[in-house]
């Protein structure tokens, strides 16, 4: 029998180390102490993947102005330019229509993800995939939490629920907003600056030098943002989560410059180098194997993020669903044998020899697997 796909892609040492981290990840999730943070990769089969969404923004900008030639590689200022060109109403309508609930609203692996015993659920996505899956697992109302329009008490209740021995919260905290609340959206550079209270590329001089030169009150307020002295609620919450909780990132590419800047701040404050603070579940392919492994090494060295790889073929994105299914199989207990028989529509409800034969066959097969 051939080697498993991932073992074939990695060296023996790399595979064994990845299996160790996977085992640790499973134990951590099963402990009930993990905070889930979901990125765009977990929605890519239903909504546009990040490169596709950038392409969509560019397409709409070109429809509005055929001479629009802005470079999208530096995405944050690019998004601001698209927003300025389209106008805020069309810009937010585009986000609304792109990420509103569609059919299907989620896939089975999203339900498997939501059944895992995470203490809290957060996401940078605008869509409601997680809410849809949660509602299928255990119907509820009012599952979404975002900062604009939410009362301070609601946000406080979410934070306090993370301290409970067994979390009862069923809210999904949308860190970057939700599709149908325009004021909550964090996408362009100016939106990031406003919501996080700083610029990624901060001035080389310092605030004191500028104040000493003399500036107006309005210039001073802007300078507080430029130099990172403002701490809006979103920034406070993300710092507290990253600094005091252990996060499992799923569907994340770790390319968001503001997110990396927050990790840099925590690294400076708490010296998280070489620690085992968080976990990242990351796709790896044969063609990008070396680059992905080097990236994972950097995350561990700089930010204490342990990476657990799952393998995909070059043009196949089914690996994440399979990986989440494996987590579900390992963490959530299997159904008892009698329950599995009752779920089989081919077995009659009345007791007879067929039921006994079915039970013996399942038991024999299970014993064979254990051997």
Can you walk me through this structure?
This protein folds into 2 domains: 5-47 and 102-197 and 232-331, TPP-binding domain (Rossmann fold, 3-Layer(aba) Sandwich), CATH 3.40.50; 337-370. The longest helix has 19 residues, at 12-30. Strands 3-4-2-1-5-6-7 form a 7-stranded parallel beta sheet, sandwiched between helices. It is an alpha/beta fold and 371 residues long. The chain contains 17 helices and 7 strands. β6 (278-284), α14 and β7 (305-311) form a beta-alpha-beta unit.
In short:
The protein is an alpha/beta fold.
Q: How far do the termini sit from each other?
A: 17 Å
Radius of gyration: 24 Å
Main sheet record: 7 strands, parallel
CATH architecture of the largest domain: 3-Layer(aba) Sandwich
- Summed over residues and divided by their number, the pLDDT gives a mean of 86
List the helices and strands and how they pair.
Layout: H1 5-9, H2 12-30, E1 35-38, H3 50-64, H4 75-86, H5 88-99, H6 108-115, E2 120-123, H7 129-137, E3 144-145, H8 152-161, E4 172-174, H9 189-196, H10 207-213, H11 217-226, H12 233-244, E5 247-250, H13 257-270, E6 278-284, H14 289-303, E7 305-311, H15 319-331, H16 337-343, H17 353-370
Parallel strand pairs: 1-2, 1-5, 2-4, 3-4, 5-6, 6-7
Helix pairs in contact: 3-4, 4-5, 4-9, 6-7, 6-15, 12-13
């Amino acid at each position: 029998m051939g080697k498993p796909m991932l073992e074939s892609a990695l060296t023996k040492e790399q595979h064994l180390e990845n299996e160790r981290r996977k085992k640790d990840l499973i134990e951590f999730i099963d402990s009930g102490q993990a905070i889930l943070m979901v990125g765009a990769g977990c929605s890519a089969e239903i909504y546009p993947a990040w490169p596709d969404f950038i392409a969509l923004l560019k397409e709409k900008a070109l429809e509005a102005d055929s001479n629009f030639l802005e470079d999208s590689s530096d995405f944050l200022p690019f998004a601001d330019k698209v927003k300025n060109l389209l106008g805020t109403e069309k810009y937010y309508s585009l986000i609304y229509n792109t990420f509103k609930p569609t059919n299907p609203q989620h896939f089975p692996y999203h339900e498997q993800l939501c059944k895992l015993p995470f203490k809290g659920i957060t996401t940078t996505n605008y869509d409601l995939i997680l809410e849809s899956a949660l509602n299928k697992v255990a119907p509820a109302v009012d599952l979404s939490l975002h900062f604009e329009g939410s009362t301070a008490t609601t946000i406080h209740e979410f934070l306090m629920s993370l301290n409970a021995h067994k979390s009862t919260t069923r809210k999904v905290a949308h860190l970057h907003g939700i599709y149908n609340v325009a004021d909550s959206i964090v996408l362009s550079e100016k939106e990031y600056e406003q919501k996080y209270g700083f610029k990624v590329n901060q001035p080389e001089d310092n605030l004191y030098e500028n104040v000493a030169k003399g500036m107006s009150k309005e210039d001073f307020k802007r300078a507080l943002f430029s130099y990172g002295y403002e701490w809006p609620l979103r920034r406070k919450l993300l710092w507290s989560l990253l600094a005091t909780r252990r996060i499992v990132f799923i569907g994340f590419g770790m390319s968001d410059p503001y997110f990396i800047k927050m990790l840099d701040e925590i690294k400076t404050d708490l010296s998280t180098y070489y620690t085992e603070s968080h976990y990242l579940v990351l796709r790896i392919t044969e063609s990008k194997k070396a680059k992905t492994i080097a990236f994972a090494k950097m995350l561990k060295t700089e930010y204490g993020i342990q990476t657990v790889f799952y393998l995909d073929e070059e043009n196949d994105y089914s690996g994440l669903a399979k990986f989440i299914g494996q987590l579900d199989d390992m963490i959530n207990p299997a159904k008892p044998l009698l329950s599995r028989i009752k779920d089989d529509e081919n077995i009659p409800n009345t007791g007879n020899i067929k039921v006994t034969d079915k039970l013996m066959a399942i038991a024999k097969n299970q014993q064979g697997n254990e051997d």
